[in-house]
Specification:
228 residues; alpha+beta; 60s Ribosomal Protein L30, Chain: A; 2 domains; 7 helices; 42% helix; globular
C-alpha cells in the first residue's frame, strides 16, 4: 500500500522538469531569433526598365541628337533642322524612320492642314495625353515634317513652326521650368525621312483620309524609354 504514496510527487517532478525544459527551449529560441533576425520581406519597388527598342544603334543616334539639339550640355541651341539631323545621325532616311517603328504604341502623330501650323482640338488632346503618359521616361521627342509639295525653304519654315506649336502647347499645360531639358525638337521639312503610307496605321490626332501626302503634314511625338 506504500508505493502509491510516491506517485503524486513523482508525477509532479516530471511535470516540473518538462515545464523547465519547455521554458528553456522557448528562451533559447527567442535568443536565437534575436541573434539571427529573419530578413523582412522586401517591398516591391517599381523601376523604370529600358524598352526593348533601346538597342545600341538607337542609343547612338539618340545620343548624337541629344548632344546637338540642345537637350544635353550647356549650349543654348534649340532643335535641329533637316541638314543637321542628316549629318548628326549619319543614317539614311529609311533607317531613321525604322528606329521609331517600335514606338508605334507609345507615341502619336499630330496632323496639320496643308501649310498650317495651328493645333485643332484633336491635336491638343493627343499632345496632352502623350505628355502625361511619361512612365518614368526622361526625353520627349517632337519630330515635325512639312509637306511633300512646295519648296524646300517653305517646308523648313512650316515644319519648324509645327514643332514649336507642339512645344508651346506642352509648355502652357505643364508650366515646367525645366521643359527645355526634356523635350527634343527636330523639324525635317520635306528633305529628310519622309513617312511612308504605313504610318497612317499609327495613332493620329484626326481620323481623316490618310496617304503619303497627309501623313507628312504632321509632327510625331513620343517619350523615349532609354537610359544613356
Amino acid at each position: 500500500m506504500r508505493p502509491h504514496v510516491f506517485v503524486g510527487p513523482a508525477l509532479g517532478t516530471v511535470l516540473v522538469l518538462g515545464a523547465s525544459f519547455w521554458v528553456r527551449g522557448q528562451i533559447d529560441a527567442a535568443a536565437d531569433r534575436l541573434a539571427n533576425p529573419q530578413k523582412a520581406p522586401e517591398t516591391a519597388i517599381a523601376s523604370h526598365a529600358e524598352a526593348a527598342y533601346c538597342t545600341p544603334e538607337f542609343k547612338i543616334v539618340l545620343q548624337r541628337v541629344l548632344n546637338a539639339c540642345g537637350l544635353v550640355g550647356t549650349g543654348s541651341r534649340r532643335g535641329c533642322k533637316p541638314a543637321d539631323v542628316k549629318n548628326i545621325a549619319s543614317i539614311s532616311d529609311a533607317d531613321f524612320n525604322a528606329l521609331f517603328l517600335p514606338l508605334k504604341e507609345r507615341g502619336g502623330i499630330v496632323m496639320f492642314d496643308e501649310g498650317k501650323d495651328n493645333l485643332d482640338a484633336g491635336a491638343n488632346q493627343m499632345i496632352e495625353d502623350r505628355w502625361l503618359d511619361r512612365q518614368g521616361a526622361r526625353y520627349f521627342f517632337i519630330v515635325a515634317r512639312g509637306s511633300k509639295t512646295g519648296t524646300i525653304e517653305r517646308n523648313r519654315v512650316v515644319s519648324h513652326k509645327r514643332a514649336n506649336s507642339v512645344f508651346f502647347h506642352i509648355s502652357e499645360q505643364s508650366k515646367d521650368p525645366n521643359l527645355e531639358k526634356q523635350v527634343g525638337m527636330l523639324w525635317l521639312g520635306k528633305e529628310f525621312a519622309q513617312l511612308p503610307k504605313e504610318f497612317c496605321e499609327w495613332k493620329r490626332s484626326r481620323e481623316s483620309k490618310c496617304d503619303e501626302e497627309t501623313i507628312n503634314r504632321s509632327a510625331f511625338i513620343s517619350w523615349v524609354d532609354c537610359r544613356l
